[in-house]
TrEMBL record:
<dbReference type="InterPro" id="IPR014710">
    <property type="entry name" value="RmlC-like_jellyroll"/>
</dbReference>
<feature type="domain" description="Cupin type-1">
    <location>
        <begin position="4"/>
        <end position="118"/>
    </location>
</feature>
<dbReference type="InterPro" id="IPR052044">
    <property type="entry name" value="PKS_Associated_Protein"/>
</dbReference>
<dbReference type="InterPro" id="IPR013096">
    <property type="entry name" value="Cupin_2"/>
</dbReference>
<dbReference type="InterPro" id="IPR006045">
    <property type="entry name" value="Cupin_1"/>
</dbReference>
<protein>
    <submittedName>
        <fullName>Oxalate-binding protein</fullName>
    </submittedName>
</protein>
<dbReference type="Pfam" id="PF07883">
    <property type="entry name" value="Cupin_2"/>
</dbReference>
<dbReference type="InterPro" id="IPR011051">
    <property type="entry name" value="RmlC_Cupin_sf"/>
</dbReference>
Amino acid sequence: MLLRRLEDCDEFIAGDLTRLREILHPDKLGIDIHYSLAHATLPPGRASQPHYLYSSEVYYILSGKGIMHINSQNEQVEEGSTIFIPPKSIQYIENTGSQDLVFLCIVDPAWKKEDEIVL
């Protein structure tokens, strides 16, 4: 069994300017999975930097509200929203609420720095 607690995962500022904690990554934990899982936080009034990945991505909103931008589409998101982001889609998310926007990011195949292009 592998058990990870969020508070035990180092926080860092990602290339898109969200605060991230990597929970699961096959390269860092030596586990046999093909995806990575991260916990992201974006303060009120802020937006992540437009970027795209060569991998697909899923966001699951844990708390807060905002607007998800994928290519030319924009949708309101809130707690309980799940967003699929196809590979090579220009994307960013903005926090339109008064509290942190908190979400999980699943990247498949697992996130690699060289697979993310920040615009």
